[in-house]
Amino acid sequence: MAHDTRAKTLPADLGAPDFVNGWKSRSLLVGVVFSVIAAGLAFADGSIEHVLRAWVLGLMLTFGFSVGGLALLMVQYCSGGKWGLLLRRPLEAMSRTLPVVFVYWVVVALEMKRLYLWAQVSDVAAALKSGFINEVQAHCIEFKRPMLNPGAFVGVSLLCFAIWAYYSWRLTSLGLKRDSDSESNTPYWIKKLENISGPGIVVYSLTMTAAAIYWVMSLDPTWYSSVYGLLFLVGQGYSVLALGIIVSVSLSKAEPFKTVLRQVEQHDLGKLTFAFVMLNIYLAFAQFLIIWSGNSPEEIPWYLDRIRGHWGVIITLDFIFHWLIPFSLLLSRDIKRNKKRLVRVCQWIVFAKAFDLFWLIEPNFKDAARNLHFSWGILEYAAVPVAMTAFWIAFFCTRLQSRPLVQTNDPHVAEILEPEHVHA
Amino acid sequence: MPPREGTYGLLAEFETPGDLIRAARQARQDGWRRLDCYTPYPVEEAAEAIGFHRNKVPLVTLVGGLMGLAAMFSLETWISVLAFPLNIGGRPTYSWPAFIVPAYEWTILWAGLSAAFGMLALNGLPALYHPLFNAPNFRDGATSDKFFLCLEALDPKFDRVEAKAYLESFQPVSVVEVEY
Hints:
The complex is a heterodimer of chains A (424) and B (180).
Chain A: H1 19-45, H2 49-79, H3 83-95, H4 98-110, H5 112-115, H6 117-120, H7 124-129, H8 135-143, H9 150-180, H10 186-215, H11 228-251, H12 257-260, H13 263-294, H14 300-305, H15 311-330, H16 333-337, H17 339-361, H18 380-401, H19 411-417
Helix pairs in contact in A: 1-18, 2-3, 2-4, 2-10, 2-11, 2-17, 2-18, 3-11, 3-18, 9-10, 10-11, 11-13, 11-17, 13-15, 15-17
Chain B: E1 7-14, H1 17-29, E2 35-38, H2 44-49, H3 57-83, H4 96-122, H5 136-141, E3 147-152, H6 160-168, E4 174-179
Helix pairs in contact in B: 3-4
């Protein structure tokens, strides 16, 4: 019997479907509503202190989507695989949202003095004398001054943004060029993108670590952890994959993703997310176990700030939200192969990431350390990041609409159009 | 038990997994229930085509993993708290963070072993004899590049002549009768 491939054909129009406009206007609406709520909460609280803290959370979340998207794109160019064909254009769109993240960062840079103890204290001796900081803080601020000072904060961040922007621009413009080129040149493009991405991943790990240290870890100038950058790196993989799945499954209600998204690749993406769920808890627990075993007074206060005074409830919930629930659900093959359920799990993962960031950020501040208590301000964590993410999503949708959703000059295109069992 | 005799079933050989799956789907749809696919590598659609949805390997793996977890965690707790309590840096004897790593390793070890041995046991392996190996084309090709569909004689619809004609309608490479 003749070999019957029954391959599908790629639709002529590869542009984003019309309902992306709906996503855009809905997220703009959510952004506006939550901005109003955030403003109301700030008014009720009588200060913008918590707005800024929650702003850092929103910055880290959208930064994770944007630069994490760039990183996953580079990983995909190096690793290959059919799942990448689904994600490349959404990932490109994520990496091209960097301007929004930059604007978010500018606010942090401008309000540095309200957030970072090391920026606030210029005269360490006087601050120590007045009891504003303790001896450990005084020592650390003094000792880390060459690194933790406003000039270095701005300089390093700007350098990082420049590097990310360069990689994002280079990869996304070459991606377009590749599509307009003839098929005979495909091997050249595969090699070229691989050669840019390989070193790019290394550069990304370094710059991302620098950003995580400056923007979040330095909120507490006394503490350090060598796995901190890696924790954020894995966290970005975790949330970017979740967002990527949400986007590609939601797009599959219409062409072109209706044709392109097969169950096999969806299952693969679910498995990859599962791996990141595991790696995430592995690193987070490893850091805890090492510090717990060492039990040294320089290191444990950071954890005590985050366990005592009712924070134990939050860290327990964090463990359940961040690991136990996604882990248990993603174990199931049926959930990974079911579009609706997989999307639900991925939405949960994004929420869990934000919850984890809350646990990381809030206890850095004197009034909250070892003292989880209610104030109108703390509710900002449920308002500001939602508004920031919503605006980010609106921009992301614009980026998504500006290009065809599928890269066509790729040997995997033919494979992904074939019925699933041919390669099973 | 006396040795079984007679026809085990009819074996059709296909060149591609696609042909096999189409034939298997049709046969299932036409009411065949005692049938099986044989492929040189896992073809999930072949299992689906003959109406095979679930197996118990995931359950065996889960139970094995949980048993490993419980066993190691209890062992560590028993040693540290009851059998040989030691003061290590002033920590409580029940120091659960230190117990996690071995318990985790045992979870993986037991889940892995349960998956492997559970799969073999549920497949009825090791089996010393299977009638299909009486067919020379099955012996030579089943593990390299041939795809087989077998209609078993136990099926109430089975009739040697009609079943042979039925299988031939799928235009396979060959249809052979397999003896016990």
